[in-house]
Model the fold of this input.
Amino acid sequence: MNRFHRFRVSRVLRFSLAGFLVVAPACNTEVDLFLPGDPVPIVYCLLNPDSSHQYVRIGQTYMIPLDNPDYKPSSEDLLIQEEVEVYLAAEYSDSRQDIYYGKLINPYPKDSGLFPQEANQVYRIDCKLLPACSYSLYIHFLESNRVVYAQTKSFGTGFTILDPEPVLGRSVNLFHNQDFFVRFVPVTYGSIYQSTMTFRYDELYQGARVHRSLVLPQKLITEADTTRKFIEQRISGERFLIDISRFIQPSEGVARIPVGFDFYITCGGDDLAIKINAENNTQSFSVLEVNSFDNAFGVFSCMSHRHVSGFPVSPFTMDTLALSALTRSLGFLTAAAIDSLNHEKNN
Done:
């Protein structure tokens, strides 16, 4: 059975857990699932190979009836008002399974009126993932006897960053005609990547110093070729200056000091890549056409993060921020002015 399905609007299948385990391998991906007005579970679970705790978020929405576009949902449409059993199965090639059960937790305070516990449930599963292992997620709604199911595969290799690598004395150059490159090793069963760069700077005004930061996400990279030695993502120096000019506003009397760069790099599993690429496909009829789950909407995949921080801004980049036509109105100090300021502070 394919892990991703194209849904037609139809009724929720309801059957016993035992029956589901028997018939699931033979089910057709064109099976009718929902009718307008039916409550529809929404499930998100991104397994983290770097953690011993996995989290499953369960919500519920509804399908608008075609003959009643002004349909107002009832509490039954939006709230989960029955007991739910959640568990994760690690499945091995010799047909063995290890079962890990989820525990309902309440990690974030919720408004009792707008965001009750019943509208957004979070389950924690205590499980350390094995590499290149098939995992199945089961969610059993006990009263209505509905079963939600999905399967994914964990990363076969760890997520390794080659660059940026912290080296004593190294700084980041980003300016006109000078780009910066992020490099990492491809991950088996991971095929979508994104780098996020955070630019940190201080603002000085009337003797007060305030720490600021600007988060600059880079483009998504989809790459399934795991035979490559590394994957490279270019961060444009020209684009960096343009983004600084767009997102930081001039402020009279404020001097700004570039401090450094942090990098946050994320790898997503093959199933997450399929989902994201489908949602980015403008020719797709609906973002719900591609889906991880039987009997629900959502995504079940893997995700891993790496954080590399504390890279100083090079003197060339400081001077460019201070003097470039794009950014010179923003009050950034030159490298020489910053050195003079630090000298005065230390004496």
In short: The longest strand covers residues 190-205. Residues 1-36 have pLDDT under 50 and may be disordered. Residues 17-154 form a domain with the Immunoglobulin-like fold (CATH 2.60.40.380). The chain has two domains: 17-154, 161-268+306-346.
